[in-house]
Amino acid sequence: MLKNFLGLFLMTFAICIFILLMQFVWMHLTDLVGKGVEVSVLAEFFIYAVISVVPLALPLAILLASLMTFGNMGERFELTAMKSAGISLFRIMRSLTVTIALISVAAFFFSNYVMPISQVKLWTLIFSLRRKSPELDIPTGEFYDGIKGYTLYVRDKNPKNGTLYNLMIYDLSGGFKNATVMVADSGKLFIADDNKFLMLYLYHGESFENLSQQQQRATKTTERIPYRRETFTQKQILIDFSTEFSRYDESVLKDQHVSKDVAKLVHSIDSVHHLSISRANEQSRDMIGRHYLNREREPERQLPESDVMMSPDSVLQTMTLNQRRMAYNRAIDKAKQMRDQVEYNAIMLDEHQRYIRKHEVELHRKFTLSFACLIFFFIGAPLGAIIRKGGFGLPIIISVVMFIIYYIIDNTGYKMAREAIWPVWAGMWLSSAVLLPIGIFLTYKAATDSTLLNQEVWIKYYEKIKGIINSIFKRMKRRNLQ
């Protein structure tokens, strides 16, 4: 059993890793293509990407491998022979159950200790790749804006010596109103030795510079010079363009939820929770003590016993029209200030709540991965024993359908928890709560030799239901005739 299962598991796990890795690379294709990074950096990216897709690939591989293992045994009538010898299905699954339990424990430790380190390194690398300037490759016959602040148009170029012909350069680094347009018969583009600048040499051309803004600032008069024209035989331009690959500091992500294990997540949740409660209490005291009913209250000030509290309506009746208007405007301003204060307080509290939710989601995710491995085994193994089909045909179809259902439910619960529509524990354990009864039901049916997926049984049920419906219609027809 272990030999058959482990061989299939390693094969299906590699296939799942490859498929999910291609999806991940496709999502970040723009961060990789055209950057001219070294092979070692790309290899590092792929290693961290493989680690990041393990949580999705592991349950799918267990489902597919267990389904194929028991499907092959059912197709070769090995399960029938074992059951005829008095061996129950639970005894047949015992060795694999222990193996899957060990894999689930290993999956938890992997998610708790390996994933945080790999996630920090992966996203640090992705942010570094996004910041890197693209590899310089100016096309011909179209405008190129890969250099910040400049737009180039090249009609033709010599691939042997790199000479560019019929150039048009728009220098927008000083803003659109201070744009400079240059045209040249030919030119060459070089990268400086320090890899931080571009050297552009232009030959036999003209430049047109808009001077209206400079002239207006210099003379402060309405008389303006529209532009300046310059004719040159050779012109050199220095452009800031760094082609070096520099990494972000990993400490930037040290407080993010993806970089923490269970102990750090629990500590962060408790700390921010106490801070949120103290800030909420402080805001409540401030609202009640200073802004109750839009009145500034001073606790140390005591009203004389002779003062009588008057109602707002009585006070307004003693005012003139202008005094009332001023009172209304002042009340409106106070209400607006109060509203702004309430909105600010809500934003500050919501920031803490979002921080807590992200950490709680990550905390529950570390446990749901391990539990999903067990659930998918108890779905795949009994389902393979029931359908009795091995190979890559029907098992792959069933596995993909089950995994899509799991992914949709899990993603829905995650979004519900992230947006605070549901409690975090309810959203993160939704997929497990839905699939666990299915696994128990399939295990029970397989242990009792159920004909759950027998085509003949379903046809008999269909004929029986059809007969009942026909008899009901016949009785109704007789009553209508009578």
Q: What count of domains describes the coordinates?
A: 4
Radius of gyration: 36 Å
The amount of beta strand, in percent, is 5-15%
Biggest β-sheet: count, sense, barrel? 6 strands, antiparallel
N-end to C-end Cα span: 67 Å
Helical segment tally?
A: 14
Layout: helices, strands, pairs:
Elements: H1 2-27, H2 29-32, H3 39-75, H4 78-84, H5 89-92, H6 94-131, E1 143-144, E2 150-157, E3 164-171, E4 180-191, E5 197-210, H7 212-219, E6 227-240, H8 262-290, H9 312-317, H10 321-387, H11 394-418, H12 424-428, H13 430-447, H14 455-481
Antiparallel strand pairs: 1-2, 2-3, 3-4, 4-5, 5-6
Commentary on this structure:
By secondary structure, this protein is an alpha+beta fold. The chain folds into four domains: 222 residues, no CATH class; 98 residues, no CATH class; 87 residues; 32 residues. The chain is built from 14 helices and six strands. A six-stranded antiparallel β-sheet has the order 1-2-3-4-5-6. Strand 1 and strand 2 form a beta hairpin. Helix 8 runs antiparallel to helix 10 and helix 11 runs antiparallel to helix 13. The protein is extended. About 4% of the residues have low confidence.
Task: Describe the structure using short key phrases.
single chain; 482 residues; alpha+beta; 4 domains; six-stranded antiparallel sheet; 6 strands; extended
Short structural summary:
The chain has 14 helices and six strands. It has 482 residues and is an alpha+beta fold.
